[in-house]
Amino acid sequence: MMKQYAEQIHRCFRCGYCKFPTDYSDFNCPSYARFRFDTYSTSGRLWLIYAWLQGEIEWSEHLAEILYSCTTCKNCVEQCPMKFANDIVDWIVAARSDTMEKEKGRIPPAVSSFLEDVYRLGNPLKERGRRDAWANGIKRYETGDEYLFYVGCLGSYDESGQRMARSVATLLSKAGISFGILGNEENCCGNEVYLLGENELFRVLAEKNVRKFKELGVKKVVTLSPHAYNTMRNNYPLVSNTYFEVYHYIQLLRGLLQANKIKPPRHNAKVTYHDPCFLGRYNQIYDEPREILQSIPGIELVEMERSRENSFCCGGGSGNFVTDLLAGSEESPSRIRVREAYETGAAILAVACPSCMIMLQDAIKVEDLEDKLTIKDISQVVSESL
Amino acid sequence: MLQLNFDPAKCTACKTQDCLVKCQYLHLDKDKAKTEMQKIINGEDSFVLHDCVTCYACEEYCKMGNHPFYLIVERQEEKNILPAPKPIIRMWINQCQPVGKFRIGKVEERALSCCFIPQFAFLATGRLFEGIASSYIYGQEFFCNAVYLHYAKMSVIKDRLPKVIENIAKLGIKELICLHDECYGTFNSLAPAYGIEVPFKTIHYFEYLYDKLKELKGEIKPLNVKVAYLRNCSTRLSPQTEHFVDDIFKLVGADRVEREYDRENALCCAEVIRMGQGYKLADDVQKRNIEDMLKAEAEYCVFNCPMCQLNIDEKVAKSGIKPIHMIDLCKMAIGEKPALET
Amino acid sequence: MTNIYERLVGIVGEGYVSNQKEERYFYSRDPGLTTPHEPDYVVMPKTTEEVQEIVKLANKEKIPIVPKGGGLALTGLVVPQRGGIVIDTKRMGKILEVNEKARYVIVEAGTTHGVLKSYLEKRYPHLRHSIPDSPPIATIVGNAVIHGQGRLAQQYGFNSDLVSGLEVVLPTGEICRIGSCSVSPYWFSKGAPLPDLTGLFLGWFGTTGIITKLALRLYPCKKMRDVMLFLIDRGELVPDIVLKLSDTEMVEDIVVNFQPLPLMLRENYNMLIYITADSDEELEFKRKMLWDTLWEYFDNRDGGFMSLPPIMKPPYLAMPSKDTTRFADVKKGGGFEYSGPIIPIEKYPVFVTKTVELASKYNLSYSTVGRVIAGGHCMMFAFAFTFNRADPDEMDRVRKALHEAAEFSIEQGGIMWKPNVDEQKMIVERMDPNTLKIMKKIKQLLDPNGIMNPGNWDISA
Known about the structure:
The complex is a heterotrimer of chains A (386), B (342) and C (461).
Chain A: H1 2-8, H2 30-35, H3 42-53, H4 61-68, H5 75-79, H6 88-102, H7 109-121, E1 147-150, H8 152-157, H9 159-174, E2 179-180, H10 191-195, H11 199-216, E3 220-223, H12 226-239, E4 245-248, H13 249-258, E5 269-273, H14 287-294, E6 299-302, H15 320-323, H16 333-343, E7 348-351, H17 354-366, E8 374-377, H18 378-385
Helix pairs in contact in A: 1-6, 3-6, 9-18, 13-14, 16-17
Chain B: H1 8-13, H2 18-21, H3 30-42, H4 47-51, H5 57-61, H6 68-78, H7 86-95, E1 103-104, E2 110-113, H8 120-123, E3 136-138, H9 154-169, E4 175-178, H10 181-193, E5 201-204, H11 205-215, E6 225-230, H12 243-252, E7 254-256, H13 271-277, H14 279-295, E8 300-303, H15 306-318, E9 322-325, H16 326-333
Parallel strand pairs in B: 2-3, 2-4, 4-5, 6-7, 6-8, 8-9
Antiparallel strand pairs in B: 1-3
Helix pairs in contact in B: 11-12, 13-14
Chain C: H1 2-12, E1 17-18, H2 21-26, E2 41-43, H3 48-61, E3 65-68, E4 85-88, E5 95-99, E6 104-108, H4 113-123, E7 127-128, H5 140-145, H6 153-156, E8 163-169, E9 175-178, E10 210-217, E11 219-220, E12 224-232, H7 238-247, E13 254-258, E14 269-277, H8 280-293, H9 295-299, E15 303-306, H10 313-317, H11 322-326, E16 334-343, H12 348-362, E17 365-373, E18 378-388, H13 392-411, E19 415-417, H14 421-430, H15 433-446
Parallel strand pairs in C: 2-4, 3-4
Antiparallel strand pairs in C: 1-2, 5-6, 6-10, 7-11, 8-9, 8-10, 12-14, 12-15, 13-14, 13-17, 16-18, 16-19, 17-18
Helix pairs in contact in C: 1-3, 12-13, 13-14
């Protein structure tokens, strides 16, 4: 890909389809929606990268900001009409790797810091404590358990993420699923590291995780976060033989509900669901979360205008849930998204990703919607109804 | 120079002139049919050459195996009689010319021919094609070229078909499963009619499906549906395969409705007729065909050819009958989802 | 310079002004072949008042201004020839009003065709506008200013003909209303019964003022839409066929393609005929009428309708057409540009011949499009050549081909639509001197300091 991107990136025609969803109803590129200069859209980014490769422009702080403000949500991949559409985000990631190498780390300080923290502390959240401090009573994985429940950094350290993790663990236990967590031995999955272009660090993380899973005889992994699901499913095989199947908890939960192993009672509520990029556009998982919600009696599911493959990214991808490069405006993607959720008339905004959770939760506060719109993870919608 | 194996003496000896008498479009009595056929044999002009809708049926009707339709096509080309407008013919010649963009899978001695029809990539999937799906060929380089029979371009077939056969043979293919009925007709009727050797065995996909379904018999859940079968033009080149339609229907629990325009009296999809003869005749043929299916209370219209299906599936569906390809019908019988949706 | 930057920040806010290299680089170019020229600033106002302030500042400081919407004309009309301030209008993207009974919509400077299409489909599905085939980011104002053509051009004319009112910021800073809206609260007319002053702004490429609001006519949107493909292999028959089709008064759009790829289209003139209807009966009636209208060609075997299976129709029916954009990647190089003269329809055959000749001479991949305008009164013909942006030699050959195409066009009596600077010069050289004088007077009156998109319609000499 590294060689390919440099030879192909000039193919962008800057037609601008990448800015939109399928029905052209609004701008659907999070960084473009935030900053509005054409340079912050995918076509701007690709033309600038090409210009940098050709020596027409020099590397700068501003160029770095443009390159790293992409949340790699794949709206552009979805919408680009050209044959190379599937490669676009890979080109951006390759360009990041390239700039890291050639520009000797002159990347946005927040991104540097993110990577540094993952390297030194094993998480980007500057947390030094135990990963399993939240996990009282949750069993550690033992060889022979059916699933390793991979919790991830947000699930381990962020308060909302921890609530999500406990909620999923509770449901799995209630359904009689055999599982365990790695606890303090868990490492960062590396999804954001990969997307930020730090190939070496990603390789180290991936190989370490795969080795650990292999040692323990893990055959199936179920993740809390779609980010971890995505990277273990799609990126780990690029650097290592993987000996396990990987699932997102949504996939298990749907099966459990279909098999009546979990029977949620009536819960009257109007709910709207935000498709996370790493389940949706990255892995085409759109129906399962909806089936889960609709299987709860009393739930009225209403869709936002932009849903499924047109879902508007919360702005958290590519490490932005920490680096926050798109913050600071009422046009920040997370704020746009919660306003959109509110317009549906739903009382609950359901998510399936801890990164979406923290981005949208903060946005609800800033938008002063706290008493009008509650954000919950799908597992919480289910477990709270039990 | 490839010559048609045509024997005028057979036509002279023919008692029935079925080729033209049974023609659903020309309505000739025996005497008129004999006269016109003789004109064609002699190389003279005949209204038959101008009014033929190129449905291929006379190839089946001729009990002498004397290839009356191929003769008609030869004469049309000799006399520059155009069964369709020049630009339509040009479009077909250009569209299907080999340009090096073919695709081949992990081809083994036994392989699937997807002809030049992309829909086969979706149809040739699932348990029915386990073990063979990856051994396929696709592209203009493997295209049977039979379509030029509709356009008085036997010369294009003579030019391209030998190369197509060579392309297939040099991949080491010994047994070719023809997913497109036209390919089977080409290799088993058209090629021999011109003395073109086909150095590999050909299996009609009907036969393949039938054998496969017998293997999976235990998994078949009878569909219990009433079906009409839409017979496409090229089945007239290989009528010996038609019994497989009934055999398959029996296996999958499909009840073939009795209707007027079926079997030897079948009407084709008529889209080639539209391009050659105009909308009135095409609309009439399609209307009669669909109304016939409705009258017989068919729930499904089973297609042999994906091109027919693509062209008229919406019309069929609008009438309330579900269009389905034969392969998809078989998929349904073993609990799989159809590959092609209208 | 710093002072100007700070003053721009004072008008629009810090986040919406840039003098950084990256913005200057990107806004110095468009996807075509025009030589880049960097602006000094890129600014993104949100309101008419902000635009006004920017213009006043520019006028005072004698800084060039270039308004930019989608930037998809491909002929460099938004490339700041003399630097200055590029005003990216796309933050002014609202749909202000739809008047159903008077059949118009009022939009802002940067409202895109895509957003309007989506809005009408959801809220006013019985109404539509004339959407061009440029990508959906193309702005309604930008497209009208260059006399763009959309799917309703065959019936109703250029998109500039479909304007029914303007709000304009003049180069000297005044905001004024043009059309019925200058007297009435309704924007039903761009001129009549008043003098039509839109002619001072439409077609001027932003050299006489900045349009901040525009009212666009809306038309009935029928429930169904279909496409028929008629093939003919003799170019000389195309004009008569086009007129016959147009005369039926039953056709929405007529587009004629002649191009070597895809193979299906090669060597034929492929006429895409669009029809709309509210019922199957109406659609079927129109189909039959069109068949009957062209029967003589079918009977002579000169032309015929190619059956398009339903599965093949969506790309033809898409609005905008993505296939138009995909032409840029034929050479895997992200580029195409076209010279699109407006011509009398009878000239169509010679223009196709010329395109093929130029493609052969300069070894280029080509496509031609002829779109009928206003019931056959004229046609937009595109000499389109695709290029690889990484191949300077190829880009140069395309420039040469387009230059020759433009020279040919004007010799034949055509006039280049959205002409690049080079083509504008050719037009000006040919223009009636008294017409030119009027244009000069208008320019002088409206833009005495010459700040508006200078380098375009350069008639000061």
